[in-house]
Amino acid sequence: DDDDDDDDDDDEPPGFIVASPTSIDFGAVAQTQSAVGDVLTIENQGSGPLTINAVGLTSGTGDEALFSVAGFAGGTLQPASAPINLSLSFDPGTADVGLKTAFVVVESDDPTHPELTVPLTAEVIEDCGPCLPEWTLVDGENLGFDLGGLPGFGGGLGGGLGGGLGGGMEDPQYLQVSTGTVDVEIQNTGSGAGTLTSVTEGGTLLGMLLVPDSPDITFVGGTPLELAPGETGSLQFQVTGTATCELVDVDGTLSFIMGSGAPEEASIMDCMDLDGGLGGGGLPF
Fold it and tell me: What's the confidence (pLDDT) of residue 158?
């Protein structure tokens, strides 16, 4: 009879261990910054019980000392039981700048995955003090000409105004777009996370040259846009005109001209109604 019981145990279907996600990247973390966390879920998707024998960290380089795992030391997960959540963290401390890697190792009686490993990565960057965001228009390009040379900004206005504008008004950022729904990509090229919350259409370029809100370009969504250092996100606009442009200001920290024309002097002059010189509607004075 005992032999029969042993046979029954041998015939019991095994558990099947599954981890989610299959890897975790903590991103860029500055030296001395507070620890950042994440969660790793372990689940039994088999038809028999799954025994977790140990949960630990390894790396082979010593990097595992910068990571931690807690939440479950071991035990048995029954089929279809609730998954367990392992709390992970990465604390850069004063570690050297560079990529740090380690593995969560989960030992179990799953015959196909007796040692399940989940890669962990983090990039330690130099201590940046306040760690501020900086916003960059991904596909923007310089206009390639000096706005000081446009009608009304050279000698046409008289006095010292034209001469004083040339150097400071060179190469504003311009984004050429097509009609339809447009995703304007913005990257956080700074050292800290940040959130963009507002978009203003129309205004004065460098406080002097009016680029009005165009009825053919409409902001439709994308805020709040929260981005960690190095991340890229998008704001959505609807463009209906084929010869239009407007100034776009994002949170007062990023301004650019969006237009459907080519980034050349003639099309920008037409767009801003500068062909007529002082008679056009594009100049605020």
Answer: 34
Domains and CATH numbers, the chain: 17-125 (2.60.40.10), 135-144+171-271 (2.60.40.10)
d(CA 274, CA 200) in angstroms, rounded, equals 22
pLDDT value at 2 more than 60:
no
In three-state form (DSSP H/G/I as H, E/B as E, the rest C), the secondary structure along the chain is: CHHHHHHHHHHCCCCCEEEECCCEEEEEEECCCCCEEEEEEEEECCCCCEEEEEEEEECCCCHHHHEEEECCCCEEECCCCCCEEEEEEECCCCCCCEEEEEEEEEEECCCCCCEEEEEEEEEEECCCCCCCCCEEECCCEECCCEHHHCCCCCHHHCCCHHHHHCHHHECCEEEECCCEEEEEEEEECCCCCEEECCEEECEEECCCEEECCCCCEEEEECCCEEECCCCEEEEEEEECCCCCEEEEEECCCEEEEEECCCCCHHHHHHHCCCCCHHHCCCCCC
Residues 43-101 have pLDDT tens digits of: 999 999 999 999 999 999 999 999 999 998 789 999 989 999 999 999 999 999 999 99
pLDDT of residue 165: 35
Pairing mode, if any, of strands 115-125 and 24-30? parallel
**Average pLDDT rounded to a whole number, residues 128-150:** 75
Q: What is the pTM of this model?
A: 0.52
